[in-house]
Specification:
single chain; 218 residues; alpha/beta; Arc Repressor Mutant, subunit A; 5-stranded mixed beta sheet; 10 helices
């Protein structure tokens, strides 16, 4: 029997992708995750996450999907879609990619039942047992493993973007002063703004200020 966990990294940042990841392991080998120090990625240092991931890949099957800012914006701005459903669809794709008997997902929605039903309708493998929980990355080692896969992939992508554009914008989170300063300076620069989520308030406030200034000219 194979058990899987699904989690995300980068749901909240204004810069860069959200990464959805799955990790799968034989049920009888799950104890190995505790032995290697697996836990929610937010409780681990960057160095420790990278160290664990190397060993993790030896006992788990893993996969991840990068969800880019334009796709996130499209879902957030849609009247019939939202970020939760987008995350659920990506989770379903991962579940179909790495077959498991049972999958546990960290749920972003307040409505556990509707989120679970949505994923069950999306997956091709109707036999898989799906569990959705809040704080699943804290309560289940295999979801913690998925969170590590997602976080490392997200961090690597952020470093790639910084190298590509030649700018250090910090973590990409709205609370980061370095990220705020970068958005304020480059929000309308096409080279840089392609990596920004334009549905986020952090970006919107600069766009709206520009629109108000333009209207003031009349």
């Amino acid at each position: 029997m194979h058990i899987g966990g699904v989690d995300e990294a980068g749901r909240g940042p204004v810069i860069g992708p959200m990464v959805m990841a799955i990790a799968s392991i034989r049920k009888e080998d799950e104890f190995k995750l505790q032995a290697m120090g697996v836990k929610d990625s937010k409780l681990l240092s960057e160095k420790k996450r990278n160290e664990i991931l190397i060993v993790l890949k030896e006992v788990c099957r893993t996969a991840f999907i990068k969800v880019w800012p334009d796709e996130i914006d499209e879902a957030v701005k849609s009247s019939s879609d939202n970020l939760n459903w987008l995350e659920a669809r990506k989770a379903a794709q991962l579940i179909d990619r790495i077959p498991c008997n049972e999958v546990i997902l960290d749920c972003p929605s307040t409505n556990l039942v509707s989120y679970k039903d949505y994923i069950k309708n999306q997956v091709k493998n109707k036999k898989v047992k799906i569990k959705v929980e809040h704080k699943a990355d804290l309560n289940h080692l295999i979801v913690g493993a998925a969170s590590i896969v997602a976080k490392v992939a997200r961090d690597e992508e952020i470093e790639k973007i910084k190298k590509e554009i030649g700018k250090d914008f910090g973590s990409g989170y709205p609370s980061d002063p370095k990220t705020q300063a970068f958005i304020e300076k480059y929000w309308n620069n096409k080279k840089y703004s392609v990596h920004m989520r334009k549905s986020w308030d952090t970006w919107q406030k600069h766009h709206n200020q520009k629109a108000q200034t333009s209207l003031g000219a009349f």
